[in-house]
Amino acid sequence: GSGKDWLPTLHVAVTGAAGQIAYSLLPRIANGEMLGEDQPIVLHLLEVPQALSKLEGVVMELQDCAFPLVQGIVATDDLRKGFADVSVALLVGAKPRSQGMERKDLLSSNANIFAEQGKALNEVAANDLRVFVVGNPANTNALICAANAPRFNPERFMSMTRLDQNRTQYMLAEKAGCKIPEVDRVIVWGNHSSTQYPDITHARIKGESARKVINDEKWIREVMIPKVQQRGAEVIKARGASSAASAAAAVVDHMRDYWHGAGDRWCSVGIPSDGTYGIDEGLWYSVPVMCPGGHYRRILNLPIEEFSASMMEKSRKELVEERDAVRHLIPKEFGEKM
Ligand code: NAD
Ligand code: LMR
């Protein structure tokens, strides 16, 4: 043996496993960057039938990496086989937008995927299941998935805004001329869409108020906020495809922090609203949380300035519209809670 004390094997599912995000993500999961270097895993790779032959190539490459932690690989287009016994499900598989589209334009093609996946997870996943939704529109897809998986506490379903948080952190560090880890308490509120609100009113740079350090409100409102809101579109325009390496990095960052704990660092993630901050219960709205390890705690009672409140309200309204557009996929029992 390697002399290491290995934990019991964990089953980890990734949908859209032949897609571009997965191509960056799978090797990082497989070498332990996300769940730990002492955590053996079985990878469950899910795809649609048309992409199974491409997926076969991805499986070959994963085998050829000879990752010590990988105890097995399941590659399938069958949801019940793919999600059997999984404790972590990363739902990446969905259509990406192309230039000129908003992410919510994907609802009609992608929403149904998440209803079907919720049902299958409900039937066959492990009791300790955690779900992280990346496929767009991620917040509302997480709502649909949770609503169709009543066996699990909705709190276990998260949607990704970590990429937006990372984008904001980078921009602040660049502007302040400091190191990335010196920037903390950046918040991304709301939807992973162009209405999101990257909020630095509580952020700190080297422990001091980021706003004081930056000392340029015009830059914050007229450059930073719109740039973060439009960054996904900017990448699509430049690359001809949506962000993949950075999206994979954000998945690893969030799930690592969630799983192992993030100390006193704040993380933003889309989770079911508990009604605080004026957000309707049951909307998947991105808020700041602390990660003690294996779960999250909402950061409550932050003072919200008028400008922030109006930005947060725009995103709330958009999420209500998205929810109303997919009511047919939300079972009545779950809908009654909203
Ligand atoms: P891609 O087209 O390269 O790959 C998606 C893969 O998903 C394809 O291989 C496709 O066959 C597969 N797929 C489609 N439906 C599926 C289903 N029902 N089950 C299993 N697999 C299925 O796209 P990508 O660039 O990897 O992006 C994937 C999704 O992630 C897109 O919706 C994109 O908009 C979104 N995204 C979200 C964020 C975020 O921050 N939340 C960031 C980047 C991308
Ligand atoms: C991103 O933020 O880069 C992704 O959500 C892809 C997109 O459509 O913008």
UniProtKB/TrEMBL annotation:
EC number annotated for this UniProt entry: 1.1.1.37
Domain Lactate/malate dehydrogenase N-terminal: 11-155
Superkingdom of source: Eukaryota
Keywords: NAD, Oxidoreductase
Molecular function terms from GO: L-malate dehydrogenase (NAD+) activity
GO biological process: malate metabolic process
Start and end residues of each Lactate/malate dehydrogenase C-terminal domain: 161-326
UniProt entry tagged with the keyword Zinc: no
Keyword Nucleotide-binding: no
Family under the similarity heading: Belongs to the LDH/MDH superfamily. MDH type 2 family.
Name the UniProt record assigns to this protein: malate dehydrogenase
Organism: Galdieria partita
Upper taxonomic lineage: Eukaryota, Rhodophyta, Bangiophyceae, Galdieriales, Galdieriaceae
Residues of the whole record sequence present: 50 to 387 of 405
